[in-house]
Protein: Quercetin 2,3-dioxygenase
Amino acid sequence: MAATVEIRRAADRAVTNTSWLHSRHSFSFGDHYDPDNTHHGLLLVNNDDRVAPAAGFDTHPHRDMEIVTWVLSGALAHQDSMGNRGVIYPGLAQRMSAGTGILHSEKNDSATEPVHFVQMWVIPDEPGIAPDYQQQPIDDQLLSDGLVTVASGISRHDAAITLHNRGAALHAARLTPGASVELPAAPYLHLFVARGRVALEDAGSLHEGDAVRCTDADGRRVTADDTSEVLLWEMHANLGG
Structure:
């Protein structure tokens, strides 16, 4: 496979707008279906969601999916059919494994302030696993101007939470202006600029909401132009092959 770097700008993503939700989709999702944009590597969903105060997603089902939610600002209340209840806030890693089937709801925990979060989905290695839930605070580690492994199924990683996929890992970094990180070498990378503005080596400037899809990534560096936050999926397999 020849190495590739494909930049996807924020303005080019599909958008869902309702009275309480503004959501930008990096891949086909819901009513927005594009047969040429269904995934990258193992990543199926990368939704950038803003939910109005006292609103959110009512109880709904999921099955055979690893769902990672990363809050950027505000607070998101989670409740599911396994009895898990809690509030997800910035710096708290959370993963829900839908497995054989789970019901859950996600609501803005504030009556006055919006909540902004990114939700990401990858499939598990095996279908039909038992539903599972995990969360872990890692906020302090994110202040180090380096990549922090949020969730991983890759055995060599020391991750805050686990994924039931041996070829996928999510890393995050909060970067001060001028700070840089080296991206891992991997067959597939997906870099999402959650906040701020960064520069990707040999690819140029990336603004909030922009994403980069890399194949055969070779250790490029990302440097922050402003105070920034990036989410990086490292993947060692591709759906369907």
About this structure: The chain has one domain: 4-235. The chain has a mean pLDDT of 95. The two ends are 13 Å apart (CA to CA).
